[in-house]
Design goal:
Length: 197
């Protein structure tokens, strides 16, 4: 492969590189952006649907984003940061849909009902406190909590949020790369594919 001078080199043609490349191209269309990929296809490793849960992490149900402090209170700062970042991603994707660079949202992103279950009195107490701390914030006001076994299939504590989203990394990443001001090069030992700017 001959030497090329670019402003931005993105290594890996997954959804993150495709999104970052498209964002940079929107901010500064004069940038020369090159994305390189060693696989024979874009979005074929971590972004591939079989290698990834395909969920947008928004801090709703990931318990590790809300650690318990030494005093017993719940630290929700990380969940808030992650949720705010995810909201920005949603806004960017909405913009790309409006510009015709992504298909209709229902083609690549869908709401999925999500639940967290725990067992044991200590874990239920943690989940209850977590819910109480998060639910006070507007980003989590629609979250529900229940210890009613009839409402869930779990034994005890449960939180739910209906706005966790599932999206197709491969479809969104490939579409962004092909529609964007990106150039993708597959390494020579594979079939060569280029989407020129």
């Amino acid at each position: 492969m001959s030497a090329k001078k670019v402003d931005v080199l993105l290594v890996g043609a997954g959804v993150m590189s495709a999104t970052l490349g498209k964002l940079l191209a929107q901010l500064d269309p004069s940038l020369k952006i090159l994305m390189v990929e060693r696989q024979s296809r874009v979005a074929n490793e971590s972004s591939h649907g079989l290698n990834n849960a395909g969920t947008g992490h928004a801090g709703y149900c990931e318990l590790n984003y809300t650690p318990q402090r030494a005093d017993g209170s719940i630290d929700i700062r990380r969940a808030l940061e992650i949720n705010a970042a995810f909201e920005m991603s949603l806004q960017f994707w909405s913009y790309l849909v409006e510009q015709g660079l992504l298909p209709a949202p229902e083609k690549f992103i869908n709401p999925v009902y999500h639940q967290s279950f725990v067992r044991g009195a200590e874990n239920v107490a943690f989940l209850r406190k977590r819910y109480q701390a998060l639910h006070q914030h507007h980003l989590f006001e629609e979250m529900e909590y229940s210890e009613d076994k009839g409402k869930s299939r779990g034994d005890t504590g449960e939180t739910r949020h209906g706005h966790r989203l599932r999206f197709s990394h491969a479809q969104a990443g490939a579409r962004l790369a092909q529609a964007g001001q990106l150039r993708i090069e597959i390494e020579p030992h594979h079939r060569r594919h280029e989407a020129a700017r």
